[in-house]
Structure formats: structure tokens, C-alpha cells
Amino acid sequence: MTTDSLSSLKESFQDLSEERLIEVAELPTFCSAEGIGREMLDLIADLYPICRSITGNGVRQTLSLIERLIPLQRHEIPSGTAVLDWTVPKEWNIRDAYVKNARGERVIDFQKSCLHVVGYSIPVRGRFQLSELKEHLFTIPEHPDWIPFRYSYYDENWGFCLAHHDFEKLEDGEYEVVIDSSLENGHLTYGEYYLRGSVEDELLISVHVDHPAMCNDNLSGVAVATLLAACLTRVKNRHLSYRFVFIPTTIGSITWLSRNAANVGKIKGGFSMTCIGDSGGFTWKETRRGDTEIDRAVKCALRESGEEYKLWEFTPFGFDERQFCSPGFNLPFGCLFRTYSHHYAENHTSADTPDLIRPEKLAGALVLCAKIVLILEGNGKYLNTNPKGEPQLGKRGIYRKIGGPIPQAHLIHLFWILNYSDGEHSLLDIAEKSKFPFEELWKAAGVLRETGLLIPLEGT
Amino acid sequence: MTTDSLSSLKESFQDLSEERLIEVAELPTFCSAEGIGREMLDLIADLYPICRSITGNGVRQTLSLIERLIPLQRHEIPSGTAVLDWTVPKEWNIRDAYVKNARGERVIDFQKSCLHVVGYSIPVRGRFQLSELKEHLFTIPEHPDWIPFRYSYYDENWGFCLAHHDFEKLEDGEYEVVIDSSLENGHLTYGEYYLRGSVEDELLISVHVDHPAMCNDNLSGVAVATLLAACLTRVKNRHLSYRFVFIPTTIGSITWLSRNAANVGKIKGGFSMTCIGDSGGFTWKETRRGDTEIDRAVKCALRESGEEYKLWEFTPFGFDERQFCSPGFNLPFGCLFRTYSHHYAENHTSADTPDLIRPEKLAGALVLCAKIVLILEGNGKYLNTNPKGEPQLGKRGIYRKIGGPIPQAHLIHLFWILNYSDGEHSLLDIAEKSKFPFEELWKAAGVLRETGLLIPLEGT
Amino acid sequence: MTTDSLSSLKESFQDLSEERLIEVAELPTFCSAEGIGREMLDLIADLYPICRSITGNGVRQTLSLIERLIPLQRHEIPSGTAVLDWTVPKEWNIRDAYVKNARGERVIDFQKSCLHVVGYSIPVRGRFQLSELKEHLFTIPEHPDWIPFRYSYYDENWGFCLAHHDFEKLEDGEYEVVIDSSLENGHLTYGEYYLRGSVEDELLISVHVDHPAMCNDNLSGVAVATLLAACLTRVKNRHLSYRFVFIPTTIGSITWLSRNAANVGKIKGGFSMTCIGDSGGFTWKETRRGDTEIDRAVKCALRESGEEYKLWEFTPFGFDERQFCSPGFNLPFGCLFRTYSHHYAENHTSADTPDLIRPEKLAGALVLCAKIVLILEGNGKYLNTNPKGEPQLGKRGIYRKIGGPIPQAHLIHLFWILNYSDGEHSLLDIAEKSKFPFEELWKAAGVLRETGLLIPLEGT
Questions:
Q1: Which chain C residues are within 8 Å of A401, Cβ to Cβ?
Q2: Distance between CA atoms of B132 and B142, rounded to whole angstroms?
């Protein structure tokens, strides 16, 4: 594919409305189109105000907005259902909540920000002295303008979150407190999008959809996953299958694993994705096994991305990789992010607004994911059918004519593939050894396959 | 154990006279008591003047002083006994020795320092011209005030060691030379202290007791081993067995190995210890196998010690590890020291005095050994009984109530243990991976065992 | 061998005319004699002007000059012979070639430098306008005084190479072009020198002999290989066999491999050698397997050479190692050079003259090769016959008498060998672990063998 055909491809796909199908090698370019970037920003803007939690109508509204771009299979799991060591909790919904001062003014008002209410707060209606009330108030003194995000999912409680500046203005006296919520038997809701390829081996991407009114954590992940899914739908002849799950943190992945335990063997690789739109470089948190194909594909894509990146060893905390990498599953499942949630002050506060998202970084994350897909699709082992000595490329029309000192880059790709296609080394191995771009090597393998000098190794 | 209870423990154990028993987790604190430090310094001071050699009454006196603190089983092996490739040598004793000048003055006098006589010097009585005498005199020209330590164990010879300054003052003329020694059939003497635990697997600590009138090499090692043994006696429910051997260098360990060859399989780990009281940082010289449990336990203890330390790969010379790591035994046996004997000029000279010993460094060595014991006692593999997904800690009362951004340290310990208790990883593995202190992880494992979420893996 | 006997050896062997035999341990010294260095420079000077190519009389003349020093077995393989995936090409010879301007002056003249003609140019006789001629002219604009080396072996074509300065002087008009060459059925020629040792395992050294009128690439390699072969002939009791092949690049090694495929199992190690006489440090390009005995022997020799050196991982391009390391052979075959061919501008140009060769560097390369031979000859595994505890060296007369602080170097060699001669570790392993010179350890092993404490392990 020449540079010219790439730019024309990019121009053709300013948005998803055109119906043309593409090759998987075109996916990164397709994903980098301006129209695709706009779709991600629009989706984040629309999802932002929704009051999400681990259950309830906020999750359902979120899934509905995602469905503008990809069809989801929705799952509703009843409260009380046993899922692994856990139980699906009651469903929480909230209509309004406030704290009124003696003058009847709403000094804390859910209508202004859903972060003001501690997630899963039980219904409250009463009057409290300031001192009593304070036991239920949460602030961040170091960032006095920000509202913290707090929740109490498994311990029935209630509370309000507010800016420390506003907290300090509260005068002594009695306050009227109303939380018009419900915590009742209902359902845990999650959505799933599955694209069948020519094999059942699948890449699983999981994003959490339970955080209310915050962007980088994790509407950025939701947007990238949704658009990747939408773009992948356009790819012809997908070899792998792809599964995208939109679930609440922890209880969501536990529920999913509980219901899909028999099929996890199909997961060739996967990752959770969050905090992926900020200005930081990438981080890949390795799978628990540490050197699986998904680890190596992501590292290869990162090397070739031109962006700064870090690699972290697996740790048994973080996001949903905790569950997928619990020892009883130990799946090849990592986590992709830019700035780690604990490493930016705005995380889990009202300061995690759309302004934290850098459009070019969000777009870069989507292209990285597309590159990971390209590598997983292209990777495999081949056999050099003429392994004794170098085959004579000249007689097959793939060699320069007048010998000079420096082999052409293209020839070197051929030599790497011929030498290491011994049944032991995959294209990803060869990319790692040679440091040449995966895509170039994949193309070179294609040239060699046409000559019959290279054949795919069965069963890889 | 809170900081308060730790200080109270430390106050309670100012010396060994009280009879209270302790938990193994308390051992490092117990060992750090001021009274224990004083015992070590007293022991060194009392042992210092004795004229030790690889056999003889000096060794017996040394063992007697150690027996003030711990009961020893003494072994007396007759001269001529075949021990591996060697033969127990004749026993050497000395009463007096001197060189008198023409004026009848003792210009070299054994009564002033036992270092003046080359170890194992045969009896001599005669008159020698200075030129003849000089062939039997040893000095250190670079350190003209110090008397060197020399010996000739397996080649019958005699000689005197003296300060080079004094050597230069010797005038021409005839000298009277007397060495009132005996080199006769007798015994090689060593002592042993064995503490039986609930299993026969043992930690073996070996210190050499043959060096005359020198402190860092190796009364420091003798003192730390003796007090560790004394303190270990107080520990309740020891899992491992412990063996301390007080032996002469080389021939001592060869003799011990010869007599105990059938039982060396019980040695789970061990080390020789010397030069452990000077101002230097620690060095762990690895076992020949390099990555055994004792290597990893010592490295963990060193990491957590807060002191500087170095790691050395095994080399087939040094101290008694040479014998324990000879290829026919290849035991998991290393060597612990501060400044290596060849790396400080005072070594093997009269300048290795009590002044070289820093009390806080000697105390630090004992605490390090206690920490090694703690790690070996606590190490083992466990099984997470709920390996699929994270178990719900909240319903077992071991989770925070209101969710905030940063997991508490204690929780992270639980997560590490749960995730890696898969039958493959030991607590020491988890400490290495997580970089959390071993003791904290051990405590966390205890919390999980109470909930039934963790069970010990049989046979580890 | 004392320093004295070494210098006397060096003086005795100023050239190869004397017939004395030597021990393999003497080989590096023997090779460093001044007379040997002179032979290498003379050989290069004599070979320099010859118009070599991958076939033809230039190769035959080259082999004849080598035969002044070592007898070669010559092989003549007919054109058209199938060799692996290739076919032996027609034989190329050339008598004269020129380009004459309108005034009848030879503006390009083969008689001045054989590099002026593109290798394998077909016969040409004709008149060309400058514009037509230019399509057959090659220059190096960045180095306007140098003539490039170009060839067209497998695509029938013709051309001239010239200095860019001369190219720029060419005036418009008609030129007479003559290439008096022949490209006809004939033979591919190569030479081989084989020295049988006590085992059939062999070291294979391959140098290419097809480059016309250039020195560092690769008359330097030819000279070092020839003199190493000549010196090796003098060595008594060689354990290994040695094979030197003098072949054209690519098609030569392919032809050799095709004809010797059944015997490549005997190749214990090998390397191609080129660009070995310039002022750069050494580079060892590892074998494809990366950690074979030849890799480790060369690295050991390099460490001990005192020269700067680099190690390169295998890459599937370069010199004849490409063929020996093709996946169907995957032989333990590397490449030894100083400055890599692509890393000095003079490579493959007329500027690669005898002036590029530094006599002391060429000599250093020969000594390095001799050291590699020494290591391969000396390497092996031994068994300590007294593996439990250290054997008592004193009673065998190999220990110091009066014990002092620092073990003598010689003793330390003994300890290393005794400790690691456990059937697992070779002398080369011990040299790597201990960092002591291989030769010293080999000598120490000899001392121990005399005492019976060490015996060779069968089959190594």
C-alpha cells in the first residue's frame, strides 16, 4: 500500500457512514480518520452527565448511547444471583438528593452534579445537626474546589461529597437531608459486542461503565473500545473473533466470568482499557503470565507507535485485569492506559472533565488498538520451503540487478523471514529480533508466499 | 504487634536472665535488646586473649566461655583419624616462647602476645645467629607496628612474628630461642549446639574458633552465633531445627562433614559467618547453587535491613563454605560477613583488636540473623481456596467501608497473597515480586488463614 | 612455559622455513613471530592486482599463490551443476576492456585497474553515444576519486566503473567500447586445506576469494587463514581437525554446502573471516544459535586479547555465515571481522588498498585465531576424583608452606578447577565463571591431572 493510497483511504473515511469494507492492514489508517475521532469525542460528551453506578438506569442509558454505533447484546442479571464468591447486589437508582440549610437553600444539590451523592446511598429523609451531618460528608482538602467520587456498594450507608470550599462555608445549625434513591432487587446490566472471525480464538476488550460524570476514567476507554468495534466491523476476512464487554468494575467482570467460565479458553488475549485519553504516554500493564502473545503484540505496537510508553509488571490490583488474572483463571489479560488512575490528582473527582481528554491522544489510543489487531491478525509461523542455503531470489524476480554495497531494506526483510521461518519463530518473534516494523515483515512474508518459498505452518 | 508492644518487649529483654518465651516474629526485636548486645561484647572481650589454634587447649577454653550462654556438645577427635581426604593432625599446645638477645632481654615474648609465635611451631631450644634467626621471622613492612598472624599446620616448622619496627631494631649477634610447645597425638576439638524444631530440616551456622587474639576475624562471628543460639532457645514452636558448630577452619569443617556426611540432606540452608562486627556494610556470598532458599531468605533480610549490602557470587575459596560447597556435597551453604577478610589491612594481624568492632554493627548482624530465621520459619506455599475471581473480602469483614482512591497497604498485601497463592509461589516469592516486607505478608497470610481463604500447601 | 622460553620460541620462528614442531599451547606465540607477519603482507601484495571474480582464472591464480604456503585440494565444479537452490554459473574471464574517446584515447582502461569493468560483463564491441554509454557507467559521487566495485552475476549485462572526477570529464560524442571477456561453460573453482586431528570434529574457517583488487575485503582474511593453516601444520598432537576453504562469496559456500551436506555434522564450529586487517577493534558476529562452543571460545579469546571488541547478534545477511546458518543447516558458524564492510567508506572500492592494512592488526588477528584454536583444543570437562571437601593439596606437594593472608594465584586456579570439575562444567565454563585466563586454568588442570585428583570426563 503506497503513501498515496493511504492518504486517499484516510480521506475516504471521514466518518463511519460510508459502507466500504477494508483489509485488516488498512485498519490503523481507517481508524485515524478525522471523522472517527469526532465520533469518539461526541460519544464522550453525550455520556458525560449520566449518573452511572454498578447497577441501575445510568448503565442502561450508557449502553443505549453506545448502541448508536454498534449493536450490543444486553444482559440483565437479577439481584441475588451468586456469581463466583460474590452476589449480584440490589439495583440502585436515584432521582434527586440535596442538603438544605435553615434558609431552605440547597447547599448540596444532586441536580448540579451526580457526584454529590455517595454511590449506593440508601434513601434518607431527615433533619440533622451539622455535627451529625459531617459524618456523612466527604471532601478533598488538598483540592478544595473538587468534588470527590465515593461509593459504598456492599455496606449500607449514605453520604454526600462536596468541594472543601463549600464544606467550610457550612454554618452550624440544622439541615434538611433528602436522598430520593432506591436500593431494591433489580438487575445488574452489562453489554457485549461479539464479532465472529474465521476462528473462535478471540481478543477480549473490557471497559468499565460504572463511573458517573467522569471522563478519562473511563469514558475515554468506552469511546476507544466502541469505535474500535465499529471500525473492526468493516474489516474483511477477519481471522480472529473479537469481543467487547461494557461492564461495571469488579462485580461486572466477576459476573461475566461466572457466566462465561466454560468459554474462557477461547480468549487468546485481552485487556481492560481506561484513562486512555489524557496527555500522558502509554502504559501496558502486563498479563500475570507476562510474556503471552497479547503482551508481545501490544509491546510491538507500542514500539512502533512513536509515542513514549512504559511497561509495568502485573500487580494484583488495578482494574478488571484483577479478575481475569485471578489464579483460577490466569488469562492472558493485561491493562492499557495512559496516566495510571492513582497518578493524576483529578482521578475519581469532578475535575476529571472532558477538558482532560486530548483529542489527538484519544485518537492515538484507537490507532494503537488497531495496530494491536493488525499484529494479532498477521502473526503466525511459516516454513521456509528451501531451508538449506539461501534460495536464489534473483531467478524468482525479487532481487536487485547490479550488486552494490547496501542491501535494500526490502531484501533484508526477506532474508529475516527466510532465515527464521524454521517452524520455531513467529512473525512477531522475527519483528522482535530484527527490529523491523511488523507490517513490513508481514508484507514481505506475502511476497515470499507468492513465490512458494514460504508456507504457513499448520495450526498456528 | 504494635510499636508499643515492641518497645515493651525490648525493655523486658535487656538480658537473657528472664525466662519468658517468645514468638518467632518477636525474635528480631528480642535480639536487638541492649542487654543482648552487651553479652556479645563481653564474650568477645573474654575470648580475645586466648591462644587458639586448630587444636589444643585454646579451643577448649573458647568453648568453655561459650558454654556460659549455651550448652555445647563437645567432640574430641583423635589425631590420626582419617577425615575425608585429610587426617586429623597432632594436637598443638604452647606454654611459653621467646627470643632473648645477648643481654638476656626478651626481644620477642609470647607472654605479650600469642601472635608472636607461628601457629603449630615445633618445640625449639637453641642459640642462633641473627642471620639464621631471620629465616624464621615474619613481619609486615607496610604496617611496621603490627604483628602478623602466621601458621604452619601441615609442614613441621617454627617461627616468630613481630612488628617490623622491632625487627629492624634487632642487632647482629646470637639469640637464645625457646618455643615451649608440644605437638603430639591428642585431639581436634569442636563444639555443637542443636535445637530440635518440629521438623528435622535444619539451618546450619558455622563459625571458626581457631584464630588467636583477633576479634573481627572471627570472635565477631562467634559472638553473633552464640547469642543467636541463646535467643533462639527462647522461641516457642520453632518449625525448623537449628545447628550451630564452633570449629577450626578447614580441618574443622572437613572433620564435621566426614562425621555427618549421612545427615547433610537435612541441611535446608546454612552459612559460615565471620568479620561481621566491623564498620562495613553486609556481604552475602551466595551458595554454589546460587538461588536456594537460604540465598533468597538472606537477600530478603538484607533488602529489609536498611543497611548497605553487596551480593557476591560463589567462589571456591574464602571460609568454610569451601568445604560445604565442594562438588561432592554442594550444600546450600553461603557466607555472611561485613568487610571481607582480604579487604581490610588489619585482618590476620595484631591490629584486629576489639577496637575494630562497632557495637551497633555487631548488634545489626544479630538482628539480621534473627530476620533470616524469621523468614525461613515463615516461608511456605499456600493455596487460595477461592481462586476464581477475587474473593469478596467485605463480607468477611476485612475490607474498608467507603471506597476511596488508594487501597490501604494492608489490603494490597492480601491481594498479593491471594493472587499468587496458586501452589507455585511461596511467601518469599511474593515478597520478592511485591517488594513488600516479608513479615507484613506473613501477617496478612495469617489473616487470610483465619478466614479459610488460604490454606497451607501440604509438604512445603 | 616461562617468559624466557617464550621469547626464545619467538626468535626461533621468524619464518616458516624451519621445520620444528610445537605444542598447541605455543601456537599463539609462534603465530606472533615477525616472519609470519611478513608472510601475510607478502601474500596480500602478490594477490592484490589479480582480477578475481566468482569464477575464472583469477581464482585459480589466487589459489596458486596460496599454495606457496599450504597445499590445497582444488575443486572444479562444472557450470550448470545444480547446487542446493542454485546453479553453478558460466565461467567468466576477461583479457582486456576499454572505452576510447573520439581521439582514440582509452578514457577507461581495464589494464589500469580491473575494477573498471563490472564483474561478469558480457563481451561488447561497439560504438555508443555518451548518453547511451552512461547507462553502463558507475561512480561514487561522494568519493569522486574512487572506482566502485560492481558486478552482475546472474543477470547478463555489462558496464564500467570509474572515478566520478573522470566521469565528469567525459565529453559528448561517440565512444568505442570493447570488453574482451568470455562468459562460457566452464567451472567454479575453490580450494580446500584439511588437517586431520585425533578426532573428526572440525573447526571450519571460510574466506572468500572472489573480490578483485581489494585488500581488507578480503585479502586480509585470505592471508590470516592461510598463515593460520600453515602454522597449525606445525602443531603436534592436534586433537581437532581443521578445514580451511577458499571460496567465492555466496555461490561458493552454497556449492561447498551442497557437496558436503552429509558431513556438516562434524563441524564443531566455524566462521567466515573478512575485513580483518584494518585499524578497527574486533567484532564477533555470533552464530545463529548464539551460545555454542565456538561463540564462547571466540568470546574468551577476545576478552583475553586485550583489544577492544564488540559482539553482534546473528543477522541473516553479511558474509558466508548466511549460508552456513540457513535454517536447514543452522551450523555453529559465525563471522569474525574488524570494521564491518558497510561501516568503512573504502569497502567495495578501489580505495581498499594495501594501505588500509595495519600490519600489527593483521598480526593480532592471526594471534586471536591461534588463541581460539588453543581454547578449542584445551576445552573439555573433567571430574574431581575427590569431590567431598577440598583435597589436601599440601600432602601432594602443591601448597604453600607458611600460611599467609592472600592465596597465590596458582592455588586459586586449582580451587576453581577442583570445585567445578563436577561433570557439568567445562574448562571454558570455569574460565567464564572465574575470569581467569583459559591457558592458566588449562595448565592448572594439567597439574591436577598429574596428581590423579582430576580425570578427563569421557566423551567430551
A1: 152, 155, 157
A2: 23
